[in-house]
Model the fold of this input.
Amino acid sequence: MKLIGSTTSPYVRRIRLLLADSDYEFVNLDIYGQGRDELRRNNPALKIPMLIDDNQEVYDSRAIARYLSEKRSLAPLTWDQENQLTLIDAANDSAVILLLSARSGIDTNEDLMFFNLQRERIMMTFRTLAAMVDDGQFSQWSYPAICLYCLVDWIDFRDLVDFTGVESLLGFRDQHRDQPLVAATDPRKA
Done:
């Protein structure tokens, strides 16, 4: 198995943590620099992560997680867990938009509908996810908990959100710092 991605992507990190007990090759790409050509050769969606397992290619973190779950004969996610992932992915997608826009020289703090919608989505989902954390819905280190960890840690690392009112998300993150491979996959070390 080969996982293609970057060490700073929260989507890649979640798969690396999911693969903690697996033997696989990790190809770390600079997707905005020299690694762009390899990304073009391997994934027509130009997204990371991407998994290659024998002749099977899988192009998205959620699809990769499902593929690995089926390959390992694990129970499928519940609908509640699927909804958790939808919330996590929505916040993550909006945060990536804000980061890439800022890196492109766009002032994302302007009072513009597009950026306002991204910030609103992040905070709305964060409040919902914090309530779920408080309710114990992420108490087991499962794929949704891994995804939440990667989201919160990445957003904190990128300093994209004020966590006032959703501090339990940081508490959740801090509780899981000792999970296998969390330290080794920290984007701050990239």
